[in-house]
Design brief:
The structure holds two protein chains of two kinds.
Chain A lengths: L5 E9 L5 E10 L4 E6 L5 H8 L7 E6 L2 E2 L4 H9 L1 E5 L10 H6 L8 H5 L5 H13 L15 H14 L4 E5 L7 H18 L2 E5 L3 H7 L2 E6 L2 E6 L6 H8 L7
Parallel strand pairs in A: 3-8, 3-9, 6-7, 7-8
Antiparallel strand pairs in A: 1-2, 1-4, 4-5, 9-10
Chain B lengths: L23 H27 L4 H6 L4 H8 L28 H33 L2 H4 L3 H19 L2 H12 L3 H25 L3 H8 L5 H35 L7 H10 L3 H29 L1
Helix pairs in contact in B: 4-8, 4-10, 4-12, 6-8, 7-8, 8-10, 9-10, 10-12, 11-12
The chains are: A alpha/beta, B mainly alpha.
Bound molecules: adenosine-5'-triphosphate and magnesium ion.
The site of magnesium ion has 4 residues of chain A, from helix 1.
Chain lengths: 252, 304
């Protein structure tokens, strides 16, 4: 395989208030790979994703995107973000803006200031956005406002927005935690299928171990800010899970 | 597992909550509260004396009360000016009849509305960009941001501290009487007011969409434009319309200190004891403000 999309070495992050969220994290993801990240609440999963796309500046170690240090400058971190799509637990759609324009906002990193200010999109951009909406099967809702959609539909729009960036990686921070189990599968199916079709690498923070095993090529488990386990879904045994989640793991 | 020993409390049993701990600070605070209340009451009584509040004066009125009352209910509704014999007065220059009280006042009322419009528009245009600098959530984290936040906040506070009428008096001295000083006074005071409201709206936005737009690699300007503006725009429009509403009333009063509009004539009529004309003023103000009130609340409802 070619070089890693993301590669961290000795990554550490301490928040300004002194909370140590990540220590000594060596993590990588290859092009087209789907990695599930699991770990208890507060283990540092969200912090990892934010370090990868440069929203947080690590306090130790390095984060490389396609071989180049993400944090070499704030400008470079911004160019990295253009190639990195992200979806969130709370969807993060902009209220009162139509679904189509929300998807087009995925191009915000690529358009110049003036074009952005007047919401002027080229025909190619509009076609791309419509294609993204089609791929998550929500084209018929293009004119609605986010609050007129269900949670599952909103997350599909958020996926379309991330795809509209034509990213190399998709970061998903608990993308289905706010959804019922059936809808969760629909949403993950869409995201993972499209990533596989387009060769987009995907890192998904998941609270459901079964979903993590089912969708991930590889699993990385965090415990108290450190990588505690890394391997294939089959290697994630109940013993390991007990180490990660504590003795009561069997209860759920 | 729930144990069988755990019984719910009997309905008849009285519950005495544990004593709330009382510290020295609590006692001092209670003492202070009573002292402040007592002082305030004394000040309140002194205020009634100082303002010569008296029902008898209100009912009996001054000596001119009958004439004033008569004039006030007989507004001067003339469309052309007439002399003592009832002849139409012609303008020396044009030979046309001179306009009467009604057209003159309508023209001045129009000027008042126009003043409020220009003053409000200027304040919206200026406070809009400034309010982003005065929003805590956008400026924290960098020294330059802190500086911008503190200085713009300070400017807003200072502008708000001056009542428009004081600003108008200053500007009438500076640029002479007329609507222009009135517009300046309205604009400056409104910048302080709107700036505060706008920046508070920005501070209360949902940060999730902002974070999502940031994650697309957008520049700071576009993050604000795409992530924040759609969230605050309806509030901005509502605040601006409301401000215009207030400014219409305010610009009537500004005329009294020479800053243009109908207030200027109202003041003159009262000084010259022309109460019939003053009554026309009141009538026109009442009608105009009512109509504009309806208009702006209709607009605001449609925006919400
Ligand atoms: N902005 C912040 N300031 C200070 N501490 C923070 C901040 N954000 C997160 N933390 C702390 O950092 C640690 C890791 O948090 P993080 O959000 O990465 O965990 P997580 O694995 O994503 O948890 P969850 O599953 O609940 O989302 C936690 O102890 C958390 O309290
Ligand atoms: Mg998290």
């Amino acid at each position: 395989m070619s070089e890693a999309v993301f590669q961290t070495t000795g990554l550490g992050l301490t928040y300004p208030d002194g909370t140590r969220a990540l220590s000594d994290v060596d993590f990588h993801i290859k092009p087209g790979e789907v990695v599930s990240v699991i770990g208890r609440s507060g283990a540092g999963k969200s912090t990892l994703l934010r370090c990868l796309n440069g929203l947080l500046v690590p306090t130790d170690g390095s984060v490389k995107f396609r071989g180049k240090e993400v944090h070499s400058s704030p400008e470079h971190a911004r160019t990295v973000r253009r190639d990195v799509g992200m979806i969130f637990q709370s969807f993060g759609l902009v209220p009162r803006v139509s679904v189509l324009n929300n998807v087009l906002i995925g191009r915000a990193g690529q358009v110049g200031l003036w074009r952005g200010l007047i919401y002027h999109w080229t025909d190619a951009e509009k076609q791309l956005a419509l294609r993204c909406l089609t791929r998550v099967e929500i084209l018929d809702q293009w004119h609605k406002r986010p609050r007129e959609l269900s949670g599952g539909q909103q997350q599909r729009v958020a996926i379309a927005r991330a795809l509209c960036q034509q990213p190399a990686v998709l970061l998903a921070d608990e993308p289905v935690s706010a959804l019922d189990p059936a809808t969760a599968r629909v949403v993950l199916d869409h995201a993972v299928r499209i990533c596989r079709e387009d060769g987009i690498a995907m890192i998904a923070n998941l609270h459901s171990v079964s979903l993590a095993k089912e969708y991930g090529d590889r699993i990385v488990a965090f415990k108290a800010g450190r990588v505690h386990f890394e391997g294939l879904p089959a290697e994630l045994t109940d013993d390991v899970l007990r180490e990660i989640y504590g003795e009561h793991y069997a209860d759920f | 597992m729930p144990t069988s020993e755990h019984k719910p409390p009997q309905p008849s049993a009285r519950i005495t909550p544990p004593q709330k701990p009382r510290t020295l600070r609590d006692s001092l605070w209670t003492g202070l509260k009573w002292t402040i209340t007592a002082l305030f009451l004394v000040y309140l009584i002194a205020s009634f004396q100082r303002t010569e509040f008296n029902f008898y004066t209100l009912i009996s009125g001054g000596k001119d009360i009958k004439r004033v009352m008569y004039d006030l209910v007989h507004p001067d509704l003339s469309w052309v000016e007439r002399d003592a014999d009832g002849e139409v007065v012609l303008s020396r220059k044009t030979g046309e009849p001179k306009p009467g009280t009604v057209p003159v006042l309508l023209d001045q009322m129009n000027e008042t509305v126009m003043m409020s419009l220009v003053g409000t528009l200027l304040s919206v245009l200026l406070s809009f960009p400034l309010s982003f600098l005065a929003a805590r959530n956008l400026t924290k984290g960098s020294a330059a941001g802190q500086l911008a936040y503190n200085s713009v906040r300070f400017i807003f506070n200072v502008l708000r501290a001056f009542p428009p009428i004081i600003l108008a008096i200053i500007f009438v001295f500076m640029v002479g009487p007329g609507p222009f000083p009135g517009v300046l006074a309205l604009a400056l005071h409104s910048i302080g007011m709107l700036g505060k409201l706008f920046s508070e709206a920005i501070e209360s936005v949902d940060l999730a969409p902002v974070e999502a737009v940031r994650a697309t690699g957008a520049s700071n300007n576009l993050i604000v434009w795409f992530g924040i503006l759609p969230q605050v725009l309806p509030q901005f429009v509502a605040f601006s319309l409301y401000r215009w509403d207030i400014n219409i009333r305010m610009s009537i009063i500004l005329g009294i200190v020479g800053a243009g509009g109908i207030g200027f004539l109202l003041d003159q009529y009262i000084r010259l004891f022309q109460y019939q004309k003053a009554s026309t003023c009141f009538l026109i103000i009442l009608v105009a403000v009512t109509i504009l009130d309806w208009g702006s609340s209709w607009l605001r409802e449609r925006m919400g």
